[in-house]
Amino acid sequence: MTIPLLPLAACCAMIAAGVTLLLERSLVRALTGVIVLGNGVNLLIVTTGGAPGGPPILGVTPPAAMADPLPQAMVLTAIVITLGVTAFLLAVVHRSWQLTGSDEVQDDTEDRRVRLRARRGELSDAVRRRRDAYRRLVIEQRAELANLEAEQAERERLEEADLERRIDRVHIELERWMRDRRLEGMSEEELHRYFEEAGRREDAAAADNVLRIEELRDEHAHRREAQATRERELRRRLRSRQRETRRQMRTAIREERARQALAEDPELKGED
């Protein structure tokens, strides 16, 4: 079976025009779209219904030469349905013109109210999510600062414990040496004189030790200053990120309120 292209193209054009008119807000255009769409579908059914033939009556037309009666019955039924829909839409257009003086379909007030409530719910959810994210950011940064402070305190405690162990070890060695000298028969005067001679011999070394101690103190002060600088930098970044997060949250709230204001219906002012 060969389908003619010209009727098929006319069907496609009529169906497209009918669908486009149905999407308009004007009831008159919607009525025209129903009529055009119905005629286009009827023409499509007749075009694709098969080759022409004789009347489908037994004894009058041979079975091989009969036309298919189903497309014709479907088209007749569709014509009746289209006529009923057309009459209904005409009544609706006439009543709308009497009540409002226009055939434009207005937005339903309840639909707009539901949409506004949904937008308010979305705004609340967005604000809640941003506040939760901000709280999590603050908690994480505070935990990071607490970890840094704990590490610094632990490092200082370990240094103090190591210094105390060294001092205790020196005292123990000194007591052991003095006890050994006493067992060997050395008197207290000799021990005292020995300490004085050792002190004079180690004056130069003591000066070097003082310089070394000063260097260690300077190094320790530098480390503490570097640690304090890192903590100040971390706190500055924390405050900067907090300000940026608050600014983004306020911007999002303002944008959402602006979109909500654009979508408001004047009839809904004063309602929640």
From TrEMBL:
Basic and acidic residues bias (residue ranges): 222-234, 241-259
Location(s) in or outside the cell: Cell membrane
Coiled coil: 131-180
Secretion signal span: none
Keywords: Cell membrane, Coiled coil, Membrane, Transmembrane, Transmembrane helix
Stored Pfam families: Oxidored_q2
Keyword Nucleus included in the entry's annotation: no
Residue ranges of the TM segments: 6-23, 30-53, 73-93
Membrane topology (UniProt): Multi-pass membrane protein
Region named Disordered: 222-272
Cellular component, GO annotation: plasma membrane
Family, as annotated: Belongs to the CPA3 antiporters (TC 2.A.63) subunit C family.
NCBIfam families attached to this UniProt entry: PRK07946.1
Stated name of the protein: Na(+)/H(+) antiporter subunit C
